[in-house]
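Lecture notes, unit on protein representations.

Consider one protein chain, 323 amino acids long.
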Amino acid sequence: MDIADLRDRILKQDRRALARAITLVESARPDHRAQATALLDELSKAGRQSLRIGLSGTPGVGKSTFIESFGKMLTAQGLRVAVLAVDPSSARSGGSILGDKTRMERLSRDRNAFIRPSPSQTHLGGVARRTREAVALCEAAGFDVVLIETVGVGQSETVVAEMSDLFLLLLAPAGGDELQGVKRGIMEMADVILVNKADGDLKATAMRTCADYSGALRLLRKRPQDPDGFPKAMTVSALQEDGLSKAWEEMITLTNWRKEEGHWAYRRATQAQFWFHEEVRQGLLARLQQGQVPHHMAKLDGKVASGDMTPGQAAKEMLDHLS
């Protein structure tokens, strides 16, 4: 693969080249990984940045509908929008439906939009391991906004916050005990909470749910990267496209404040450090699959299963073997 040609085409906003590059960075083949690293290094010199928005929410809350309506609103303003949607992979077959382009039919036909679904595989947090690199490719391709949609909500879901500038939490009205939302992991990461489906018979319920979450947010410790009034809860209707422009205004207000106060640059720097450490960890784990290591692991597995060794003893022996 001609990395220089691929780099030039991406910088010229060639969508096919972008899709090919994302396929390259998602590959686990050693030669592909070397090419992907070289490509990302070349593209980083362009210095292009997008607004990265992470979006999380329980299945059925309307994430795809929200992204389509929100994305169409942004493209109508002349902005270019990339959507990186992570679909859950089957624990049995390893397969994924990857149906986000089908669910976002209008947005997928928009010339100013790019949608790329990826399988979550075995990675925690509903974020594919290479999603961060796909974000960097979209930035280099000149997209103004990159939306990162994850598969659902959980404590590990917060990894999406390590690759985004803003983290949105999408909630449904009448979803049960509203105080469940005060779970520390996900609530402390959210910059804006959007209560979706605020229309029809559910509008009054959505308003009450929003008020509950607004009260819960005031109980959390104030973060240094937030101006007064943030994080905040708002109601939106993705179906009727109501409240989306107001939500976008609040996102821009928060983004501009963070840039002026230096939090934007600091956050990007700490995220880069986080992913450096993550790459080292993943590289060390990959070594467990090389050479005679799997054979030695299998022998220790048998001893642990039979009770001849405790897990701690086996782990110590394995680590001593590696060193």
